[in-house]
Design brief:
By secondary structure, the chain is mostly beta strands. 11% of the residues lie in helices and 40% in strands.
Length: 184
Amino acid sequence: MWNTEIFTSAERAKAVATEHAVPTMQSDQRLLRNTLGNFATGVAVVTYESKGEYHGVTVNSFTSVSMDPPLVLISLMRSSRALNYLMERPFAVNILGNEQLATALQFAGKPQEGHEIEWVTEEQAPRINDSLAFFQCQPWAGHDGGDHVLLLGEVQSFGQRDESKPLLFYRGRWSELAAAENTA
């Protein structure tokens, strides 16, 4: 289903003129950021251990890359303190459920008073208990991504909970998955 490319020939395509001026990259970086925000993303916290302490960073740039070998990708700002640690040690990608907003905020640098993180420490990297899904990873490669670094992790183990829905980020706001009337 996902490996078939569908196309329309240019000769048969219905072309329309745009109704709005198309901004250029020189015109407004904020507008670019707002436009990119139209792509709803899941929310993940990448966790790792360093010097006997558990750390995490909230990300929304996470995707699967390859099944063989099993690779996932996260994108981190070059200025992220976590970047150097993640390039050299195991890490866990924790996909958050819609009931874990406080956890997302906590690891986004907005501590939530009284919010306790429950850690699962049975594998190579600590992970957040009750996440919607998790991936235990070994660093695979880092690639230049402009002001970000694209970090590939090789998945060593994984798991999921079926009874929860994902926490989403859309247009600069936290969101939830809408109930679907029809399923594909």
